Amino acid sequence: MKVKILMVCLGNICRSPLAEGILKSKLDSRYYNITSCGTSSYHVGSKPDQRSIDIAKQHGINITDQRAAQFKISDFTIYDHIYVMDSSNYKNIIELASNDHEKNKVGHILNELHPNSNLDVPDPYYGGEQGFENVFQMLNEACNHIALKLKEPN
Ligand code: 4NP
């Protein structure tokens, strides 16, 4: 059975599509199912933000096939690990969990780099291009840790 990983942000057009694309580039799709969604319905059905598409492309990753979706309660059953980009996403997702097993699947993605710090991946939506490069670098480092951890024998 594949390990299933869900990346979550607010709109599912800037940060979590990058997290999805980056982690996919580091793990074999035969063994890992990686996708992303937003806590909001604002952009459901949309392609990633052009600035995320561009920054991913500059780093050799194609995210143009992604389409935004909204988090669903049933995702708690489907996914093994749910990585949120910020504390607001965390609160929104945890509020939907029905038990500790579901809550324990949810974590801040930057805790992979800075354990228990609950740091936010800054929302680059209202900023400039540099914000997207900054987000890419943070997510790339976090995904390096996630990929290594997942590939370790249990
Ligand atoms: P994301 O960024 O959560 O990283 O996809 C945002 C995208 C859209 C909006 C907010 C954040 N919005 O308000 O439409």
Largest sheet: 4 strands, parallel
What is the CATH C-level name? Alpha Beta
> What structural category do the secondary elements indicate?
alpha/beta
Low-confidence stretches: none
Task: Give the overall silhouette.
Answer: globular
Helix content: 25-40%
Explain what the structure shows.
By secondary structure, the protein is α/β, with parallel strands linked by helices. The protein has one domain: Rossmann fold, CATH 3.40.50. It has six helices and four strands; from the N terminus they run E-H-E-H-H-E-H-H-E-H. Strands 2-1-3-4 form a four-stranded parallel β-sheet, sandwiched between helices. Helix 1 (15-26) links the parallel strand 1 (3-9) and strand 2. Helix 1 (15-26) crosses helix 6 and helix 2 packs across helix 6. The radius of gyration is 14 Å and the shape is globular. Residues 9-15, 38, 42, 123, 125 line the site of 4-nitrophenyl phosphate.
